[in-house]
Backbone:
């Protein structure tokens, strides 16, 4: 028998593992078409982290777009409500132009969305699933958690107007204390509040150790509520013995117009960028006029392409050479025999170097002979 | 064995100054002082590995995780908009980004401003905030010539002492932003080598405070 990991790529393996993980928690597969009407994305442009959308004309001149995102389509179609939640997951290709690429790329995303009454249980379930998803990829992973309520509470307490928040939040995202100090000085923020913001940006470490520090930084009810929510989450994770590698880090920031509550991103050792990202986006549901909360995350599968390639890989285990004199049936039998030994085989007349192999074999009248 | 911290240094004077800082806080790597053409130097004892790269490439190495941390000018960070942590202002390599032109040039007038620069993103962002319509002329060096030959109205470039400008009958017209060298870190690397990188930051910050 061939072992699964023998021929499945890391990305393919991960898709299987994630699907079975999500189904275990009652998430159903959501399948969508490759494109939507362009206007649909244009209306919600700031929700999409991608600025560019790949458009084309439909048959009747309608402007269509290859989907840059799956969440929007799920939200548009959802029947989830506060009484009865909808749990869906997806494995879909999205089309985006990343900064610096200069061209659109097809990228696979696997993710899930919970739409309904996002209570403490739902939050804990999603965070647990996010951490478990990272664990299916690597034994060394970190999930960074932030809370939009805490950050926006802090901005309000400091009296920073929404127009100035953007640049300060960007500095928080960079863990850039000198940048924060300079922008706060320009915005006339008091020194005491400036230091609070700088300290908030620098916080980073296990949820358990950092929460008391975050608590000490609170200066209004909104921030306290956020900490209380995070404390409940920590208690749940600890009860499942799943709090290792879950960090508090307020440098995770996202668009305040769509996200509220907990937001998070995940990293695994060996991949230089965040591979998982998500959060709570009740405000998006509001914009669609739906009476429900929502939370979810996505895993960027394209980042797994080069991950875990430690040993040299071969195209096939064995390359079987034959010549015109060998009987076709004998060739078939020889290939079958090698396959029964658990090897992958390519049979051809010449080794011209275009295919890499572990073993080189030749088929002659005596049978299969290993020659290199 | 502890994991190495990979440090990308910009080739040139700034990189050498930055290396002096690392050396003085215990991350020395004696082989780096030898005169040769090697690009990578490591010291197993201190767990550091240095490599010299083109200054404008430092942020690329860090963003893609080939380096855990790097030293880079704020001008390059602003221009490239890299997705990295900017942990410290090292306070070295100080200069400023400015709009400059021939003496007496008016920046704001009723026609489109022609701007010659190596930093199109910074220039575009600056004039966008001022609602000034511009036309960017992207150059790779000797920017000062552009206004002299009347190819552009102004330039956006780094000004250190202003001597080059003066010698070419030009002057700084408006300051855009103060520039200095920054310590940046890869976002994922910062999670998995957190203790080492934080320790490094604290030592550099302590050294800076001691000097001030």
Residues:
């Amino acid at each position: 028998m061939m072992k699964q990991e023998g021929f499945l790529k890391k990305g393919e393996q991960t898709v299987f593992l994630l699907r079975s993980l999500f189904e275990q928690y009652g998430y159903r597969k959501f399948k969508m078409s490759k494109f939507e009407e362009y206007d649909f994305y244009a209306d919600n442009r700031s929700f999409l982290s991608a600025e560019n959308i790949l458009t084309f004309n439909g048959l009747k001149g309608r402007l269509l777009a290859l989907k840059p995102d799956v969440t929007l389509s799920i939200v548009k179609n959802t029947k989830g409500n506060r009484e009865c939640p909808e749990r869906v997951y997806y494995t879909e290709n999205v089309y985006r132009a990343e900064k610096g690429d200069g061209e659109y790329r097809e990228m696979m995303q696997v993710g899930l969305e919970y739409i309904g009454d996002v209570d403490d249980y739902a939050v804990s379930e999603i965070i647990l699933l996010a951490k478990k998803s990272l664990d299916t990829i690597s034994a060394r992973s970190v999930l960074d958690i932030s809370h939009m309520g805490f950050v926006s509470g802090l901005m309000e307490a400091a009296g920073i107007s929404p127009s100035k928040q953007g640049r300060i939040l960007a500095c928080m995202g960079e863990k850039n204390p000198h940048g924060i100090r300079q922008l706060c000085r320009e915005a006339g923020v008091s020194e005491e509040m400036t230091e609070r913001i700088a300290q908030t940006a620098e916080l980073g470490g296990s949820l358990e150790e950092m929460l008391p520090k975050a608590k000490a930084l609170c200066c209004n009810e909104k921030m306290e509520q956020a900490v209380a929510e995070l404390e409940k989450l920590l208690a749940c994770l600890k009860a499942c013995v799943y709090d290792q590698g879950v960090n508090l880090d307020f440098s995770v920031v996202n668009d305040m117009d769509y996200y509220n509550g907990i937001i998070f991103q995940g990293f695994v050792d060996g991949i230089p960028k965040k591979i998982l990202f998500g959060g709570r986006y009740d405000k998006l549901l509001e914009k669609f006029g739906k009476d429900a909360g929502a939370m979810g995350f996505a895993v960027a599968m394209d980042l797994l392409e080069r991950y875990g390639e430690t040993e040299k890989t071969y195209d096939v285990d064995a390359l079987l050479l034959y010549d015109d004199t060998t009987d076709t049936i004998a060739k078939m039998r020889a290939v079958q025999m090698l396959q029964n030994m658990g090897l992958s085989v390519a049979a051809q007349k010449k080794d011209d170097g275009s295919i890499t192999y572990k073993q080189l074999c030749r088929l002659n009248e005596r049978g299969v002979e290993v020659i290199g | 064995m502890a994991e190495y911290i990979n440090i990308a240094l910009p080739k040139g004077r700034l990189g050498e100054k930055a290396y002096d800082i690392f050396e003085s806080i215990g991350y020395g790597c004696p082989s780096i002082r030898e005169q040769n053409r090697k690009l990578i130097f490591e010291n197993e004892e201190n767990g550091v590995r240095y490599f010299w790269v083109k200054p404008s490439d430092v942020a690329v190495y860090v963003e893609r995780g080939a380096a855990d941390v790097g030293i880079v000018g704020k001008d390059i960070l602003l221009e490239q908009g890299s997705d990295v942590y900017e942990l410290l202002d090292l306070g070295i390599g100080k200069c400023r980004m400015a709009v400059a032109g021939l003496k007496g040039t008016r920046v704001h007038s009723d026609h489109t401003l022609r701007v010659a620069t190596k930093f199109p993103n910074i220039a575009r962002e600056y004039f966008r905030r001022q609602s000034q319509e511009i036309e960017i002329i992207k150059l790779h060096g000797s920017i000062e010539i552009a206004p002299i030959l009347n190819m552009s109205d102004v330039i956006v470039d780094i000004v250190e002492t202003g001597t080059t400008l003066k010698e070419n009958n030009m002057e700084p017209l408006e300051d855009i932003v103060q520039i200095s060298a920054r310590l940046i870190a890869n976002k994922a690397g910062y999670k998995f080598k957190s203790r080492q990188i934080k320790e490094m930051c604290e030592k550099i910050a302590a050294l800076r405070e001691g000097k001030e």
